[in-house]
Amino acid sequence: MPTRHIPSSPKHSHVEPLHSPQNVIQALSIDNLIFGLDHDQLKILLIKHHDPIHKDKWALPGGWIRYDENLRDAASRLLEELTGVKELYLEQLKAFGRVDRFPNDRVVTIAYYALVSAEDYPMIEGQSTSYARWFSVNNLPDLIYDHSEIVAHGIKFLRHQVCHQPIGFNLLPEKFTLLQLQSLYEAILNVKLDKPNFRRKIMKMNLLTPCNEKQQGVPHRAANLYRFDDDAYKKLTEMGFAFEI
């Protein structure tokens, strides 16, 4: 997939400002967890603030919900305003409503998440009051409010999901090797998997279709290429099949 350069972000209000703009639900906000796989690292997209209250601090991209928009629409709007990233399908993760999570006010936040290839969304600092950057989930800066707690929950949830649903295949090219597949799972789960056991388990699921092709232009022995068979997965699921890594 070709690299897409993200345009500069337009002007916007800060994430969860202490003085909220008009026409927003002041007790309810959105926070987006955008996980990105960057080669062998799982990363998350954060924004840095330049406003006096949160100057040089990092946060999840999010903000206030308008009275006239749906929750997912608000999540998508805020993500695009703050980072330039758009047209992602965002899944609702969880509501976070600890009484003391926000200073001086009672604010509940709804977290949304997505898993993408970080290479497809390179971050370019814009001219807005914040800019975005990918961080390894193993080396995060200090975050505002309870965002560290939200990120920790999101990572745990994501790792559970990739073990029980084949969502990781969406990050691979159409044709991939078993080594590429294993590397993907090792990056997301942050573990070293046993190669023979992983391949035996994957092939036993009957979800991969051989392409009858090998890698081209590699300096090592060319490996066989496979495709993920989505139709086979749907049929097996209807029969009670449970995907598990």
Topology:
Layout: E1 24-38, E2 41-49, E3 58-59, E4 62-66, H1 71-83, E5 91-96, E6 108-117, E7 130-136, H2 147-164, H3 178-189, H4 195-204, E8 208-214, E9 224-228, H5 230-238
Parallel strand pairs: 1-6
Antiparallel strand pairs: 1-2, 1-4, 2-3, 2-7, 5-6, 8-9
Description:
The protein is α+β, with helices and mostly antiparallel strands and 245 residues long. 25% of the residues lie in helices and 27% in strands. The chain is built from 5 helices and 9 strands. Strands 1, 2, 3, 4, 5, 6 and 7 form a 7-stranded mixed β-sheet that branches. The longest helix has 18 residues. The protein is elongated, with a radius of gyration of 20 Å. 26% of the residues are buried.
- Indicate the structural class: alpha+beta
How would a textbook summarize the main sheet?
7 strands, mixed
Overall pLDDT level: 87
- How many runs of DSSP E, i.e. beta strands? 9
> What is the N-to-C order of secondary-structure elements (H for helix, E for strand)?
EEEEHEEEHHHEEH
Please, how many helices? 5
The share of residues in extended strands comes to 25-35%
What's the end-to-end separation, in Å? 26 Å
Computed CA radius of gyration, to the nearest angstrom? 20 Å
Percent helix among the residues?
Answer: 25-40%
- Categorize the overall geometry: elongated
The residue ranges in which pLDDT falls below 50 over 5 or more consecutive positions are 1-18
